[in-house]
Amino acid sequence: MKFVLAAAAAAMTAAVFGAETRSPGAHDVRITLDSHPEWVALRERALGYARNHMEELGGDWDRQIVCMPKAGIIWQWDSCLMALYAGYTPENLNGLGNLNNLYKMQSPDGFVSMAYVYETRKPAWEGRINPPLYAWVEWLYARRTGDKSRLAKAYDVSSRLWKWTKAHRTRACNGLYWFEDTGSCGMDNSPRSGYFAEDLKGSDVCFVDLCCQQVLAARCLADIAETIGKKADAPKWRAEADALAQKINKLMWCEKTGFYHDVYVETNNKLAVKTAAAFWAIVSGVASDAQVAKLAAHMTNPATFGARHPVPTLSRDDPNYDPKGGYWLGGVWPPTNYMIVNGLRARGHRALARDIAKKHLTCMAELIGTKDYDSIWECYSPDNAAPSTAKLGEQCRRDFVGWGGLGPFVMLVEDVLGLDVNALEGTVVWNLSELGRQGVSDLPFNGGSITLVCDVKDAKTFSGTVKTDRPFTLTVISPDGSKTAVKSFAAGEHAF
């Protein structure tokens, strides 16, 4: 491998280091990406919304970020997704405080409601749950930053929630899982169940996303167990995950459609509808490599999930598909997009993940500065340069950060810059794709920070600098994949 170090690159990096500032109690994480300044500007807009959406509730409530200010309710689904910002945003603009607040609400039997009212501390909708994502979110945060201080609490909460969900949301006939209705799964008006179940018995179907989310949680609980000194628990969690994955593949996978489907309770017949809920099979490890390839093919197929703004949440060949979005009748949602690209990356489809992330950011950024749509939106139209319509044709919520920050905060780092940070193992893998100057400064890493700056000349040639106060090993892969540089760094400033 030929290392190139230009004086101009060194001077440029010194300037970046000199411009660093710190916010009290947090890292001042900054992004450099000269090839797409509009995405960096989008991130700054998202940070502004996040600052405006921080709440101080007083008492024993932790400071938290909200998706809808002054609503008086904390949602589990939204909170988990906003906690994914942790480590990538300055000033603690993330949902970790939300998780702390929700952990306090957990019932002795392990139940956590989909939402709580601040004033009463009681469930906003009695008996309803949301996707159980705590273990996944907490594991990603610990892996990314090296901060293991939350893992013991997260393990306790997540393991008890997992056991409650298994005890109270599995069908006796087939061992698959059910949500009360599509609102509980987070996909409010998705045409996934046969009828609205006012008695909260989950309509007449088993839900593929909750099944896969339980597998994902069990796999993350195994990883957490090994990290916090409960190694004997790990094989039990993996056995639970494998057993449930086997049921999902037996009953919910359709070879003819190359897709996972919800199934009817009494017959195990598959619902014909294809929704983004099936893509949880990728990130959870339920799908085999061959099945992942078939699911990935749908994302570029214009007949199903290949759209101008990927990835619609309902297949385009469905009679309910709405090109304007219609909320979950095709709307493009940041949380499902992040779940999809995270899974694709983990399963060897990084190029597709990057393409989806870049198109997502492009479609978000093109609305900034426009007369009618100058904002970050709750969800987006798959076919038009516009926010998604909501359930009854009105516009969805604007200024939504909220999970609208997943693209400019998280995908920008992981998929566009291409950084895979594993602080627990002391490694960073940098999969370059953009040309020009790029990098991240003051990224939290094992109690310290790292700053990475690279100047990519062409598909094969790059030079860069590192500033760190923690040792780590950096692997840099050229944009065309032909060149790989591996180097270990001690604390200090270095060139590569």
What's a quick, concise take on this entry?
It contains 14 helices and 17 strands. With 496 residues, the chain is α+β, with helices and mostly antiparallel strands. Strand 12 and strand 13 form a beta hairpin.
Work out the radius of gyration: 22 Å
Overall spatial form: globular
How many domains? The number is: 2
Q: Give the C-level CATH assignment of the largest domain.
A: Mainly Alpha
Which residues form runs of ≥5 with pLDDT under 50?
1-25
In helices, the fraction of residues equals: 25-40%
Number of discrete helical segments: 14
Which percent band covers the strand fraction? 5-15%
Write down how many β-strands occur, each being a DSSP E stretch of 2 or more residues. Answer: 17
Structural class: alpha+beta
CATH topology of the largest domain: Glycosyltransferase
Q: Averaging pLDDT over every residue, what do you get?
A: 93
Architecture (CATH level 2) name of the largest domain: Alpha/alpha barrel
- Distance between the first and last residues' Cα: 11 Å
Largest sheet: 5 strands, antiparallel
The largest sheet has its strands arranged as 1-12-13-14-17
